[in-house]
Amino acid sequence: ALRRPPFAAGDSAQAQAAHGSQPFSPAAYLREMGVDIGLAEDIYRAAPGQLRLLSRDDLARYRLH
User: Fold this and answer.
1) Residue 36 near residue 63 (C-beta atoms within 8 A)
2) Whole-model pTM?
3) pLDDT tops 90 at residue 57
4) Calpha distance 49→37 (Å, rounded)
5) Which of 34, 46, 60, 64 has the fewest beta carbons under 10 Å from its own?
6) Residue span of the structural domain in which 18 resides
7) CA 3 remoteness from chain centre
C-alpha cells in the first residue's frame, strides 16, 4: 500500500534532522534499491490519511515483485 508521509516536509525532512548534515534523498534511495522512482511520485499523489493498495501491475511497474 502507498501512504503519504504525515510530515509536512516529508519523512526525508525527519531523516535529515535525525542524521544531521548527512543528506537524504528518497528518490536516490529508491534508485539505489532498484525501485522505479515513479513510486515516490505516486506516494505524494496519494490523498493525506489514505492508503492506496497496489495491484500486481503496480508491483511490476515499480519493480517490487
Assistant:
1) yes
2) 0.59
3) yes
4) 22
5) 34
6) 2-61
7) 8
